[in-house]
Amino acid sequence: MRAAVGEVIADHLANPEAYDDVVSLLLSARDQDGTPLADEDILSEVTGLLAAGSETTAVTLTWLFHELGRRPDLERRLHDEVDAILTDEPLTTKSLARLTFTRRLVDESLRVYSPAWLVTRRATEAVRLGGVDLRAGEDIVWSPYTLHRDPALYPDPLRFDPDRWLPERPQPPKGAYIPFGSGKRQCMGNEFALAEATLITALIASRWRLRPVPGPAVRPVGAITLHPSALRMVAEARTQGRHHREAA
């Protein structure tokens, strides 16, 4: 992977005017003294984004389209939003500000099916936490998946409801929604991941419908990420605006 990323960086250096992306942004970055990032730092940043952001984003979108397959009402709203944008302009990063419902779908997928379902921390010093005494050096395991399904924090927590993230709706307290962790150890790629997942969802929905195929019940399986046990779907090409009008 590092070799492939190195080739991409070299091409950006040779043809800087041809690109406007994360790599070009890193190549143009300067510190307070005007010093550019070292080549090794750029290589590590891009490799890290690819390695850390590929599986978690893929799992998030897998669960999202699983829910859309079960909820034609949500799929219809997604198509309405995407088609409205496509009447004005192609989908690009500039479209993110208008993809508000799409973003709420991503947020809700991250809540109900947190890819990083288990998180570990190590106590650097003795501390009492939640009535439990922890010694320095002890490892702690906790679950965002469980937290995000707590009925004390989320009404009807098992319901996939993207509208719970509307700005006028009551929001969960600080620390109750942490798909990327929190504090000093929060995932540094969270904003990139959210933008990536939102735009990919819109791009897929602009061209395809993913319909569920009858089969075994889909259940979460815990591994490095929380992925579905078996999810069979059929991709059906769509024409802009056609499918949601037929379903209305």
UniProtKB/TrEMBL annotation:
One of its GO terms (molecular function) is monooxygenase activity. InterPro entries: Cyt_P450, Cyt_P450_CS, Cyt_P450_E_grp-I, Cyt_P450_sf, Cytochrome_P450_Monoox. Heme binds at C187. Keywords: Heme, Iron, Metal-binding, Monooxygenase, Oxidoreductase. PROSITE patterns: CYTOCHROME_P450. Pfam families: p450. Belongs to the cytochrome P450 family. This is Cytochrome P450. It comes from Streptomyces haneummycinicus.
